[in-house]
Write a structure and sequence with these properties.
single chain, Zinc finger CGNR domain-containing protein, mainly alpha, two-stranded antiparallel ribbon, about 45% helix
Length: about 160
């Protein structure tokens, strides 16, 4: 759900209108064409509300805090909507039957519920880089991953440490 947000995250906002919703959800859902997904400007408040709830919940879990009741209510309400209906395309790829933004948000909310209530909930981390702060799920065997990306944040941190020594 890293698409921007309110406050200091507003500078990173990438979802401003229905076309942006279609583009972003098409990437998330791996749709070949953004036009395949139906979205309107009326979907924007629901997306932002769900994004805020999932973000608050994930940062809270990363800090060892329980998910706030208000965030639980938003996530559960979104998950209660009908989800995307998966289908098999003629070329064997995953597709969806008449995908809508609301159904995609329901599917994302259900994925969040699976993550937040499952065995990886205690493996949600915030990148340790001084200038990052992205969230990630540490699926490493020992559970000691520190950076969202070793190629970017991890490498830069190690170079800084080496230069400082």
């Amino acid at each position: 759900m890293h698409t921007g947000g309110e406050g200091e995250l507003a500078a990173w906002e990438i979802v401003h209108n229905a076309d942006d919703i279609r583009r972003w959800l098409s990437v998330v859902l791996e749709l070949a064409e953004p036009a395949d997904l139906t979205a309107t400007a009326a979907d924007l408040p629901a997306l932002r509300k769900l994004r805020a709830a999932i973000t608050h919940a994930a940062y809270g879990l990363a800090a060892g805090d329980p998910v706030r009741p208000a965030d639980i209510a938003v996530i559960n309400a979104a998950a209660a909507e009908p989800p995307l209906i998966p289908a098999l395309s003629p070329d064997g790829a995953l597709t969806f039957v008449a995908p809508t933004a609301r159904a995609a948000l329901s599917t994302l909310a259900r994925d969040a519920i699976d993550l937040f209530s499952g065995p990886l909930a205690n493996r949600i981390r915030v990148c340790a880089a001084d200038n990052c702060g992205l969230l990630f799920v540490d699926a490493s065997r020992p559970g000691r991953r520190r950076w969202c990306s070793m190629e970017r944040c991890g490498n830069l941190a190690k170079v800084r440490k080496y230069r400082d020594s």
